[in-house]
Amino acid sequence: MTDRLYYEDAYLTEFDGRVVECAEKDGTFHVRLNRSAFYPTSGGQPHDTGTLNGAAVTDVYVGEDDRDVWHVTDTPFNIGEAVPGGYWAA
What we know:
Blueprint (H helix, E strand, L loop, with lengths): L2 E2 L9 E12 L2 E6 L1 E2 L12 E4 L2 E3 L1 E4 L6 E5 L8 E7 L2
Parallel strand pairs: 1-4
Antiparallel strand pairs: 2-3, 2-9, 3-8, 5-6, 5-9, 7-8
C-alpha cells in the first residue's frame, strides 16, 4: 500500500520513496513506491507531473485495488531502490 503524502501535506513538492515494484508495459515502466506525493488522476482532476530520480513522470494512477499509486516513466527502477521525487501540480 502506498503512503499518500498529499493527504498529510497538500503543498509538499519533494519527497523520498523506495521502489516496491517496477513493471514494463508497452515500452514504459510502471513504478510503485512505498510513499508518494504525486496526486493521481481522479474524478476529472489531472495527475501531478514531475520526476523520480530525474526520470520524467508521464502519468500517475491508482491501481485496481485502490490502495497503490503507480508512476509511469520511461526509466526502469530496481526493487528497493531509494528514489527522490519532485512534482509540479498539474
